[in-house]
Amino acid sequence: MKHFTSITDVEHPDALIQQVVNLKEQPQFSNIGKHKTLGLVFFNPSLRTRLSTQKAAQNLGMDVIVLNINKDSWKVEFEDGTVMNGATQEHIKDAVKVISSYCDIMGVRSFATLEDREEDYKERVLTNFVQYSSVPVISLESATLHPLQSLTDMATITASAIQRPKVVLSWAPHPKALPQAVSNSFLQWSPAIDAEVVCACPEGYELSDAFTGGITTMHNQEEAFADADFIYAKNWSSYDSYGATPAVEKDWTITVEKMALTNDARFMHCLPIRRNVVASDPVIDHSLVYQQAKNREYAAQAVLQNLLEDL
Ligand code: CP
């Protein structure tokens, strides 16, 4: 594996998912990363991604350096050929070349702005990192995808050992407009496991065709929940009216009553979650969310191990 920015970087996604399941069942430590450095660069906040990736690197003997680039460093310029006599102080090209000279593997997190769909879906920040880095790049969530989360989620579902489960990716309410990255990525990875996948969302919240091909989209949440084995909740803003949050008539919060319509489904969410907005307290308290969060460590470890082996 050269980089880990999307499932398309992975030759055998099913084998990588199984590697995560195996690590979860039998955690392992090694020194394959001894005297190697992982650099983590964050344009946006993080709890799980930052700590689980750091822990995974330590499990492999790596040293880790972290930069909250928007808070602690110079203001970054992304346009080529700009006369930098304004607010920006360091060009992305220079920043990435320098940071990667201190690392053997680098990770970057940069969310969608939700202002310009074309710009966000071009993945300008991630693309610049891949272009100018002298070392492999891991996406710690980009404008349109969150592959470490999706690898984790596929491993969490696979570890349940339910034969061909029905998995519902359900839109849920949120007070702020959120990117589509987790949901896009979840759908992009789902063909790597043997599952029936349904996307449930209100009208106006359909995801890009690039990710929904072959997946049933339903606008009735209760009907979608029938016979489900897993409910994966996530909010996202509109793709068609990019970044907008059109009014939704029905209440899409996931409750105990809605979970009762399923086949005793397990509730999943990537966290952080707005309690009693996305889902009610009892749904979250009897869910897989903490297992998912712990599995982030094993997903990051599997990815780092593969990248280290190919250095
Ligand atoms: N799920 C996830 O990526 O969590 P953080 O945003 O806290 O890293």
Automatic annotation (TrEMBL):
<dbReference type="InterPro" id="IPR043696">
    <property type="entry name" value="ArgF'-like"/>
</dbReference>
<comment type="pathway">
    <text>Amino-acid biosynthesis; L-arginine biosynthesis.</text>
</comment>
<dbReference type="InterPro" id="IPR006131">
    <property type="entry name" value="Asp_carbamoyltransf_Asp/Orn-bd"/>
</dbReference>
<feature type="binding site" description="in other chain">
    <location>
        <position position="296"/>
    </location>
    <ligand>
        <name>carbamoyl phosphate</name>
    </ligand>
</feature>
<feature type="binding site" description="in other chain">
    <location>
        <begin position="270"/>
        <end position="271"/>
    </location>
    <ligand>
        <name>carbamoyl phosphate</name>
    </ligand>
</feature>
<dbReference type="GO" id="GO:0019240">
    <property type="term" value="P:citrulline biosynthetic process"/>
</dbReference>
<feature type="binding site" description="in other chain">
    <location>
        <begin position="146"/>
        <end position="149"/>
    </location>
    <ligand>
        <name>carbamoyl phosphate</name>
    </ligand>
</feature>
<feature type="domain" description="Aspartate/ornithine carbamoyltransferase carbamoyl-P binding">
    <location>
        <begin position="2"/>
        <end position="158"/>
    </location>
</feature>
<dbReference type="InterPro" id="IPR006130">
    <property type="entry name" value="Asp/Orn_carbamoylTrfase"/>
</dbReference>
<feature type="domain" description="Aspartate/ornithine carbamoyltransferase Asp/Orn-binding">
    <location>
        <begin position="182"/>
        <end position="305"/>
    </location>
</feature>
<comment type="subunit">
    <text>Homotrimer.</text>
</comment>
<feature type="binding site">
    <location>
        <position position="174"/>
    </location>
    <ligand>
        <name>N(2)-succinyl-L-ornithine</name>
    </ligand>
</feature>
<comment type="similarity">
    <text>Belongs to the aspartate/ornithine carbamoyltransferase superfamily. SOTCase family.</text>
</comment>
<dbReference type="InterPro" id="IPR006132">
    <property type="entry name" value="Asp/Orn_carbamoyltranf_P-bd"/>
</dbReference>
<keyword id="KW-0808">Transferase</keyword>
<feature type="binding site" description="in other chain">
    <location>
        <begin position="46"/>
        <end position="49"/>
    </location>
    <ligand>
        <name>carbamoyl phosphate</name>
    </ligand>
</feature>
<dbReference type="GO" id="GO:0016597">
    <property type="term" value="F:amino acid binding"/>
</dbReference>
<dbReference type="GO" id="GO:0042450">
    <property type="term" value="P:L-arginine biosynthetic process via ornithine"/>
</dbReference>
<keyword id="KW-0055">Arginine biosynthesis</keyword>
<dbReference type="Pfam" id="PF02729">
    <property type="entry name" value="OTCace_N"/>
</dbReference>
<feature type="binding site">
    <location>
        <position position="234"/>
    </location>
    <ligand>
        <name>N(2)-succinyl-L-ornithine</name>
    </ligand>
</feature>
<comment type="function">
    <text>Catalyzes the transfer of the carbamoyl group from carbamoyl phosphate to the delta-amino group of N(2)-succinyl-L-ornithine to produce N(2)-succinyl-L-citrulline. Is essential for arginine biosynthesis.</text>
</comment>
<feature type="binding site">
    <location>
        <position position="274"/>
    </location>
    <ligand>
        <name>N(2)-succinyl-L-ornithine</name>
    </ligand>
</feature>
<feature type="binding site" description="in other chain">
    <location>
        <position position="109"/>
    </location>
    <ligand>
        <name>carbamoyl phosphate</name>
    </ligand>
</feature>
<dbReference type="Pfam" id="PF00185">
    <property type="entry name" value="OTCace"/>
</dbReference>
<keyword id="KW-0028">Amino-acid biosynthesis</keyword>
<dbReference type="InterPro" id="IPR036901">
    <property type="entry name" value="Asp/Orn_carbamoylTrfase_sf"/>
</dbReference>
<dbReference type="GO" id="GO:0004585">
    <property type="term" value="F:ornithine carbamoyltransferase activity"/>
</dbReference>
<feature type="binding site">
    <location>
        <position position="141"/>
    </location>
    <ligand>
        <name>N(2)-succinyl-L-ornithine</name>
    </ligand>
</feature>
<feature type="binding site">
    <location>
        <position position="74"/>
    </location>
    <ligand>
        <name>carbamoyl phosphate</name>
    </ligand>
</feature>
<protein>
    <recommendedName>
        <fullName>N-succinylornithine carbamoyltransferase</fullName>
        <ecNumber>2.1.3.11</ecNumber>
    </recommendedName>
</protein>
